[in-house]
Specification:
Elements lengths: L14 E2 L7 H30 L1 H5 L11 H17 L1 H11 L1 H10 L2 H10 L6 H10 L2 H16 L2 H16 L1 H15 L5 H22 L2 E2 L6 H9 L1 H31 L4 H8 L1 H20 L1 H25 L2 H36 L4 H41 L3 H23 L17 H6 L6
Parallel strand pairs: 1-2
Helix pairs in contact: 1-5, 1-8, 1-9, 1-10, 1-11, 3-7, 3-8, 3-13, 3-18, 4-5, 4-8, 4-18, 5-8, 5-11, 6-7, 6-11, 8-9, 8-18, 9-15, 9-17, 10-14, 12-18, 13-14, 13-17, 13-18, 13-19, 15-16, 15-17, 16-17, 16-19, 17-18, 18-19
């Protein structure tokens, strides 16, 4: 089986008319090369998108007393950016099939110029809080890039490679968080904490470059179509909401802590902007780098097993953070907080691996086999990914609002961490009960899939549902 090379004349962009990554010959002869190229430039665009989405986690470090905004106000600024980034993930998911993955990547990357230019105009003392809030909301478009990128890359790779590919795509994108924090640190260390516009000037040409590379090297997949029936079906499916709940615990934690880390250090441990900036990038960097490993381990051992271990570790790390907060021990606090980033990164990779595995299991349970089962699983998982990503990102909003309330009430984040500990315990219980507890009786055709990895995921897909 062969596939035509992308044509630059069809429908105004590079379109591939036939795509079957599950066909091993096609994948070996042509598909893998094309998929890897699109993965590379998808990562670049998504990376810049994450940087702009989390821009205000850095800009608040430049906002000294002369801005007249207290800790609660700064937490709210980063919260609105998180909220908008979560909400726009839903339309961004469907935009891939409507406009083409390559075309939409160009558009979504170019849109990042809007919040960057707006922030450049308003970042100075005397600007009203309402204006800052509106500009922070604009950065939410960067959060949408993740959903469209993941939906696009999900279509390029076969099921056996999705954990690795989605983990690498998301991890490379997530690294945009620590990178912009490192650039912010460099600006503060060289130009001072009164020059936020230098940071914005650095990112403007990078946005243009990302859009150009997507236009030049990426492809659209013609077989990918918006399926409103699949979207409705995924909304009605219990697994979509269960996985959304678990993704709140993994990605919601990662993005929420990424926004909040510097503010917590400044307000709970009296760190200066430079001192905070010199630490804040470490957690997001490690969490991003380890995300592909979470996907790889999920491919090998089963996503539910890795996710369960992740939530156990996150609960333990949160306990360390609570003890350190009470003892006012910054070194112990950093160990626990950075462990939370690492574990959330692992969980990000494993939960995204679970999604296509679960829907393929449902296809088998319906009596479908072979390519029919693969196609049905891709159809439902593609529709679910955007919704799960959007709901999961709302966890970042919850984390920052919890910190805002905790600092308002007690002056520390200890109360917020206590609530996070309870939530991670709930995520652990749900993962075990739904995806790992052995069924009392065989759950249809899936019960015959023995072993580890994908088969184990399928075997437990319906337990408790």
């Amino acid at each position: 089986m062969t596939v035509p090379e992308p044509a630059a004349t069809r429908r105004g962009g590079r379109w591939i008319d036939e795509w079957d990554p599950e066909d091993e010959r096609f994948w070996r002869e042509k598909g893998e090369r094309i998929a890897r190229r699109n993965l590379l430039f998808s990562i670049i665009s998504e990376h810049i998108g994450f940087s702009i989405w989390t821009l205000w986690s850095v800009l608040v470090l430049f906002m000294g007393p002369e801005y007249g905004i207290d800790a609660a106000g700064k937490f709210f600024l980063v919260s609105v950016a998180t909220l908008v980034g979560a909400v726009v993930r839903v339309p961004y998911t469907f935009a891939v099939a409507r406009f083409g993955g390559r075309n939409w990547t160009v558009v979504s990357a170019s849109m990042l110029l809007l919040p960057t230019a707006a922030a450049f105009l308003v970042m100075e003392p005397g600007t009203s809080y309402t204006t800052f809030m509106l500009v922070a909301m604009l950065t939410g478009v960067g959060g949408g890039n993740f959903a469209s990128s993941m939906t696009n890359i999900n279509s390029f790779f076969p099921l056996r490679k999705k954990g690795w590919a989605l983990g690498l795509n998301a991890g490379g994108g997530n690294i945009g968080v620590p990178v912009i924090q490192l650039v912010g640190l460099l600006v503060i260390a060289t130009a001072g904490d009164g020059e936020p516009r230098v940071l914005l000037a650095v990112y403007t040409p990078l946005i243009v470059l990302a859009a150009f590379l997507a236009w030049r090297y990426m492809d659209n997949l013609a077989p990918v179509r918006n399926d409103t029936g699949a979207a409705r079906e995924s909304v009605r499916d219990g697994h979509t909401w269960i996985m959304s709940f678990l993704y709140i615990g993994t990605f919601g934690s990662f993005i929420g802590y990424s926004f909040a880390f510097g503010l917590v250090l400044q307000n709970q441990f009296d760190r200066t902007p430079l001192q905070a900036a010199s630490i804040t990038f470490i957690g997001p960097l490690l969490g991003s780098l380890i995300r592909p490993l979470g996907g790889y381990w999920a491919d090998r051992f089963g996503g539910a097993r890795i996710t369960l271990a992740t939530f156990a570790g996150m609960a333990a790390a949160t306990g360390v953070v609570i003890v350190a907060s009470a003892a006012e021990s910054l070194p112990v606090f950093l160990v626990g907080f950075i462990a939370l980033f690492v574990l959330s990164g692992l969980g990000n990779g494993s939960t995204y691996k679970m999604i296509p595995g679960i829907y393929r299991a449902k296809a088998l349970a319906k009596g479908l086999t072979g390519e029919d089962a693969d196609a049905w699983g891709r159809r439902l998982s593609g529709a679910a990914i955007g919704l799960i990503g959007a709901v999961g990102a709302l966890g970042g909003l919850g984390i920052n609002l919890a910190f805002r309330q905790s600092f308002q009430a007690t002056g520390t984040g200890t109360g917020a961490f206590a609530s996070f500990l309870v939530f991670y315990a709930a995520c652990f219980a749900v993962t075990w009960a739904v995806y790992l507890r052995r069924p009392a009786r065989p759950a249809g055709p899936v019960a015959r899939g023995a072993g580890t990895g994908e088969g184990a995921e399928e075997r437990h897909a319906y337990v408790g549902v």
